[in-house]
Amino acid sequence: MKKIFFFNQKSFLDQLGVCISKNNYEESLQKLKELCINSPFNTQAFIQVFIRAWCEKILNMLNNDAFENARLRINSLYMLIKHNSYLNKLINIYFEKINKKEIFSNLKDNDKAIYLSMQSQYFYQINKHDDAEKCVQQCLDIIIKISKRKKNSIDFWLLLQKSLKNVKNKKKSEIFLKKILENYEN
Amino acid sequence: MWILGISKSHNGAVALTHNGKVVCAIQAERLSRIKRQALDLKNDRELLVKCVSYCLNYAGIRHSDLQSIAICTPWDVDFLENKTLFDYIGGAPKDYKGTFYVPHHYSHVEYILHYSKLSPGIVLIIDGSGSKEKDRKYFNIKEQINPKCISHVHKSGKETISAYWFDGKNLYLIYRFSPSINRDDKINQNSNGFLQSIGHYWRWASNYCCGSHSEAGKVMGLAAFGKPNKYKSLKILSTNKDGLIKLNYKKLNEKFNSPNIFGTDLTESEHYSNIAAMVQKDTEHTILKILKILKKKYPTDTFYYSGGVALNVVVNEKIIKSNLFKNVFLNGSSEDNGTAIGAALSVSNFLTNKRSTELVTDYYGKTYSNDEILSAIKKYSFKYDFIDEKKKYDLVASLIFKNKVVGWFQGKSEFGPRALGNRSILANPMNPKMKNILDLYIKQRDRYRPYAPVVLEEYVKEYFDIKGVSPVMMTGGTVLNKDLPAITHIDKSARIQTLSEKDNEIFYKLIKSFEKLSGVPIILNTSFNLPGEPIVESPIDALNTFSRSTLHYLCLGNYLVQQ
């Protein structure tokens, strides 16, 4: 990426919008980075633009029944963003929309872990805490299984942090934590 | 003489001094509950009134007792009429000596000198940026300039480094680096808004590595994982023999073009840790070089250091261990919040021609009584017990020893960025799993960030390679004991708080009790807050945070609360 002397922020924001509208995730990330490098004091504002635009795009996918595309994009955002209210709302909409659709069983282990972590968040947000715990339990089991096989398959740390937050019962979350610590090596 | 100090800044604060002593100080963030809360006098009236009331109520005085208001800012100076200012403090003072506008770096200086023995020495201030050169004519606290001052001052400049000679009574500016802030100037054409400033170099690194300007502490933690010489040949930060600094943003932007804008965990990333290590190394090298230049011209054994960059404990350790000076003075609130105190002390000194000193501390906030605490607890449905003062220490120490993580809320709140044992989360430093427990379950931190130890002062040399003491957690050292995994960073270092009974009797007793059980006079001490939040101030704040956290216990005064 080359530094542009006269940086045209508006033009780059437009290009970012085009990338997102074309569902071009990698290129949109690249555009976002260029924006942030050239106008670093606006980094947080650009990030919000990026997330909002992707959330709108994914919502559009869901409205058009493009569930697999939507899942892929939500996964990417979920593993990138620690906390964002738009994304949280979108996750709720996603799980409402895909209700009873057979998605989980067709996923690979990495994607299953992310799916379960997101689903635990969904259940937590709608106050179905028992269901959220079950999802976290399953998510941890998969993470432990994967970590024994391939250490760097997914970003375990972020997923563990995110999942543990969705366990309302603190005694249970501690049991989960112990399980993780028994299996997790730094 | 009562003087109110205000730091109008991105890290706003209000302080109250009486006859040259600090009585009370509060950061705006602690009351607004928004981390790094700015305080803009024109737009934040309600918050300013809250901060002022906090200080006046603490001292048991009224607005009419105030005799002066001191204002310090790194932003544009804007004058306020007395009518407006008096509105903020609740009314007109009886015997008002005036409103004073104090240069930013000068406020930092007066604050650090307050903890000195008034020995002659060099005072160095380094931060992101301070007062604008164009505003100097407005200040009614004036700096004295040594005729031989090393001056790298641009007419459109903003101070980023200042050094003063303190002769035991008066201060004289001996060095200033005040680079242009004009974006059209050649030096700024490739900087994307960052200044020629060591503080801004860290802001750049913070933005690049963590996606936010205010995460210099994270970058410092990350630096320990990197290879400092990996990018040495780039010579990003250089200093000539006259102390003129050049920061090459053009090269930075050409070489580094993949910012971690979402702040994802960088524990295993060589790219970012090498950058962090480069910034750390460059900073150490540059500051030591400036000090050598200054010491050659002003031989002395005494050195005072403050400003935001002084929060870098690794640099501080290097300065102390460089043996350039026998006596190094550091204060805890070296960021902009401290300038509220410094501005008030500057005015006190100006009006009375007398400079007072105290032992270094940051316990400048309010103490909440057991009655206030109980009234707050009753608003929640937690199980709680009153614990006798005599039993409190052994009980809490035993919980920590049993690997419970405890919120600890006692005595006066701390003013600066460090939790020094009055608004802290405490844990067992010997438990090898404790860091993961805190990172994953309680603080939700990235793995590359270390946790700090607090050690009883009399034992510090047994456990750490540190020169002197560190009562406000402003220096680091190597951990000498292998049984402290939770507080030992990847490079075996730790940011250390040393504690004497005189510093904090309550906290001292707790650690003493822990030592009886564990044989180790050290506890892991991290700030009492959750991610993105400021440190708790009041019992309600503590209980709110506790309710949302996975902490096991919370000890507020003499009450022990359980989840």
Describe the model.
The complex is a heterodimer of chains A (186) and B (563). The model of chain A has no long low-confidence stretch (mean pLDDT 90). Chain A starts with 8 loop residues before the first helix and ends with a helix. The longest helix of chain A is centred in the N-terminal third of the chain and has 21 residues, at 43-63. Chain A is globular. Chain A has 9 helices and no strands. Chain A is 72% helix and 0% strand. With 186 residues, chain A is an all-alpha fold. In chain A, helix 6 runs antiparallel to helix 7. Chain A has a domain at 102-186. With 563 residues, chain B is of the alpha/beta class. Chain B folds into 3 domains: 2-105 and 338-352, 2-Layer Sandwich (Nucleotidyltransferase, domain 5), CATH 3.30.420.40; 116-330, ATPase, nucleotide binding domain (Nucleotidyltransferase, domain 5), CATH 3.30.420; 370-562, Carbamoyltransferase, C-terminal domain (DHBP synthase), CATH 3.90.870. Chain B contains 16 helices and 23 strands. A 10-stranded mixed sheet of chain B has the order 14-23-22-15-16-21-17-20-19-18, with helices on both faces. The longest helix of chain B is centred in the middle third of the chain and has 28 residues, at 270-297. Chain B is globular, with a radius of gyration of 23 Å. The mean pLDDT of chain B is 96. At the A-B interface, helix 2, helix 3, helix 8 and helix 9 of A face helix 5, helix 7 and helix 13 of B.
